Amino acid sequence: MAVAIIDYGSGNLRSAEKAVERCIAELGLDMPVRVTASPAEVARADHIILPGVGAFGDCIRGLKGLDGMVECLERLVVKGGRPFLGICVGMQLLATEGHEHGVHAGLGWIGGAIEPLDGGMDRALKIPHMGWNQIDIREDFRSHPVLDGINDGDHVYFVHSYHYETTDPGHVMAQTRYGRPVTAMIGRDNILGTQFHPEKSQRVGLRLIGNFLKWRP
Question: What is the mean pLDDT of residues 62-86?
Answer without folding.
Answer: 97
